[in-house]
Amino acid sequence: MIPRPTSHSPALGWQLGPSLAHPIPTAYAAPSSAADVCTPSCGAQACMVDGNLLEKQAGADPRQHTKYPYVTGTSVIGLKYKDGVMIVADTLGAYGSTKRYKSMDRVVKVNKHTLLGAGGEISDFQYIQGLVGMTGTHYTDSHVTSGFANALARPLLRAQQRDDMSEEKALALLHEALRVCYYRDKQSINKFTVAKATKDGVTVSEPFSLDTRWDYKLFAQPTKWAVGAW
Amino acid sequence: MSEGSGFNFDLCKRNAMLSAKGVPPPRAWSTGTTIAGVIFKDGVVLGADTRSTAGTTVADKNCEKIHYVADNIKCCGAGTAADTEAVTNMVAASLQLHRYATGRQSRLVTALTMLKQHLFRYQGYVSAALVLGGVDLNGPHLFTIFPHGSTDSLPFATMGSGSLNAMAMFESNYKDDMTREEAIDLVTRAIKSGIYNDLGSGSNVDLCVITKDGSEYLRNHEYLMDKTYQRKFPVVYEKGTAPVIKEKMVSLADVQVLEGAAPMDTS
């Protein structure tokens, strides 16, 4: 059994850790009722969010615990194809505007059948990896996106994704979507990992990069006829 | 109100006093739009959706977002509808006077400079995000103008709430020296990407193709608001549509009429 990591939020239930700066109130030490917890079928422990213990602030989003994200990941794109599903993301952990960690795997294998990809606060992603089966907002669709990819990749996926597409076509479509996200998202780099889940199991690829074009003729001298424009 | 060309700060003190008293400043309404333009071999194709929104309501299902600036210059506008309409009309009128003074066809840079100087002067409070395109003696040009007054000169451009959706199409499919048909097809796909994937954009696709020989306004180039289902009214159900389970016949001759009963209340 993986020991449960400690949590910073009372709403998630203070977990007993090796040493804590503040004593835990006994009321929070155990879940309120074992019957309330929906245990996931994979056998992992569930994580229950107790809404009453969340800090009540004006306009607080009950789904958001992290107030100030530090290291963040950007877009994640997933789609279904003939043999299974693929999830892809770049390998950047950005620290504000700095490209701090350039080799982070943001798509990971959870078990023989499951992939997990995440954007947003990386520390929360790492916390979640110890808590498979978390009950939260989830979507089921033929293709899902998060972050910038919502606006940039979704039109391409809607136009071209089919549930019975071959692996080559699915990969080409994901590459196209990633390329557009890389062009237009400032917090991205040209280094990606793609993970595949089929009936034969789950594989995470080695990092790869995409060809990009920066040499369109009309980008060369934008102010040729318009001094003062950019 | 002080005259002159600088920014008028008269109301800033009032706004500061109001927000100190707890009155929130009015939220700017973004009307939600997808506008786009692309330069092809012989000219420029501009495109826009036709939905105008007021909050979450669609105010106009088929409005015109491609504004006339000159015979050879058109401008698509996103942001507050009043601002885009007023600022493009103002520049169109100024350009006409300028043409009388110079005796020449208007240049794109003239329109660009007039627009950006006006918008910068109002420090972003004139909420107009524009895609300006046209053909003049120096060839085809395409510019974007942001509400604060900055401009970019680009081969393909999108603005509005659906701009990222449309830009995804451009980034995948743009190439140098397209033909007129390829450019029209690309802009249509970009605007449709905005219409189908952005809630602030919708209805139909308007296009305008400008070349050195003139401009062609393709209003409702793609009409997507077709009613695909026509409701039949009155609805006629054939006999036998509803299964009859039981039948009971009552003869009116057996009905008793009671005299002297209370009159029906028809108030």
Automatic annotation (TrEMBL), chain A:
Keyword annotations of the record: Nucleus, Proteasome
GO CC annotation: proteasome complex
Protein name per the record: 20S proteasome beta subunit, type 4
TrEMBL record, chain B:
Subcellular location(s) per record: Cytoplasm; Nucleus
Catalysed reactions, as listed in the record: Cleavage of peptide bonds with very broad specificity
Superkingdom, taxonomy of origin: Eukaryota
Record bears the keyword Protein transport: no
PROSITE patterns xrefs: PROTEASOME_BETA_1, PROTEASOME_BETA_2
Keywords per UniProt: Cytoplasm, Hydrolase, Nucleus, Protease, Proteasome, Threonine protease
InterPro entries: Ntn_hydrolases_N, Pept_T1A_subB, Proteasome_bsu_CS, Proteasome_sua/b, Proteasome_suB-type
Any one Pfam family match given in the protein's UniProt record, by short name: Proteasome
Family that this chain belongs to: Belongs to the peptidase T1B family.
Quaternary structure (record): Component of the proteasome complex.
Cross-referenced PANTHER family: METALLOPROTEASE TLDD, PROTEASOME SUBUNIT BETA TYPE-7
UniProt function note: Component of the proteasome, a multicatalytic proteinase complex which is characterized by its ability to cleave peptides with Arg, Phe, Tyr, Leu, and Glu adjacent to the leaving group at neutral or slightly basic pH. The proteasome has an ATP-dependent proteolytic activity. The proteasome is a multicatalytic proteinase complex which is characterized by its ability to cleave peptides with Arg, Phe, Tyr, Leu, and Glu adjacent to the leaving group at neutral or slightly basic pH. The proteasome has an ATP-dependent proteolytic activity.
Protein name: Proteasome subunit beta
The organism of origin for this protein: Dunaliella salina (Green alga)
